[in-house]
Amino acid sequence: MELKTTQAGDIPAFRRLYEKAFPKNEKFPFRALLKRFRKGNIEFLSIVDGGMFAGLMILAEDSGKALLNYFAIDEANRGKGYGSKALALLKERIGSRELFLDIELVMPGVPNAAQREKRKAFYLRNGFTEAGLRFKMFGDSFEMLSSGAAMDMDTLRAMLGRIYGKPAELIMKIVLKPLK
């Protein structure tokens, strides 16, 4: 298995999985992501095993930090160890930089509570820890996990602004709210 920079011919499979795997309210428009990818602001990484597309990662790097914005394994390949292997390869790829990602906050009473618990347990098993930041964005609650460092709201907003541009930074000031 390997992580490869997504090539033009892989974009359709990449997009299909992106559109299917994430809730509408949690997705940036794919065209905007593709534009940032082509400019070099973010990386589209394909998880490939024996020539077969198995999953995706959308990674952004800024100021010595890496942010895994999106990570999905194709439904047919879930439960086969691809996720853990892909995270190990990503950690190897980014070297000493801190790796951050956000997940839906584990809360009782939400429709996908079991899925949230399972997702968090997966990341904790794979060496992530709570980064000390919980926030509300686009109508849902999230928490930041990391490979070891803490993250604060101002750093996250600034990082997203540098990655996605000034309009995104302004939007993040409105929609990204800390949870107590």
Describe the overall structure:
- The chain has one domain (2-178): Aminopeptidase, CATH 3.40.630.30.
- It is an alpha+beta fold and 180 residues long.
- The chain has an eight-stranded mixed sheet with strand order 1-2-3-4-5-7-6-8, with helices on both faces.
- The protein is globular and about 45 Å long.
- Helix 5 (153-164) runs antiparallel to helix 6 (166-175).
- The chain is 38% helix and 32% strand.
- Strand 4 (65-73), helix 3 and strand 5 (98-104) form a beta-alpha-beta unit.
- It has six helices and eight strands; from the N terminus they run βααβββαβαββααβ.
Biggest sheet architecture:
8 strands, mixed
Strand order of the largest sheet: 1-2-3-4-5-7-6-8
Q: What is the CATH domain class? A: Alpha Beta
CATH superfamily: Gcn5-related N-acetyltransferase (GNAT)
CATH architecture: 3-Layer(aba) Sandwich
- The quaternary state of the protein chains shown equals single chain
List unreliable stretches of 5+ residues. none
Average pLDDT figure: 89
Helix content: 25-40%
CATH topology: Aminopeptidase
Notable characteristics:
8 strands, about 30% strand, about 40% helix, about 180 residues, 8-stranded mixed sheet, Aminopeptidase, globular, alpha+beta
Question: What is the gist of this entry?
Answer:
The chain is of the alpha+beta class and 180 residues long.
Give the SSE layout.
Layout: E1 2-5, H1 11-21, H2 30-39, E2 42-49, E3 52-62, E4 65-73, H3 82-94, E5 98-104, H4 113-125, E6 129-137, E7 140-146, H5 153-164, H6 166-175, E8 177-178
Parallel strand pairs: 4-5
Antiparallel strand pairs: 1-2, 2-3, 3-4, 5-7, 6-7, 6-8
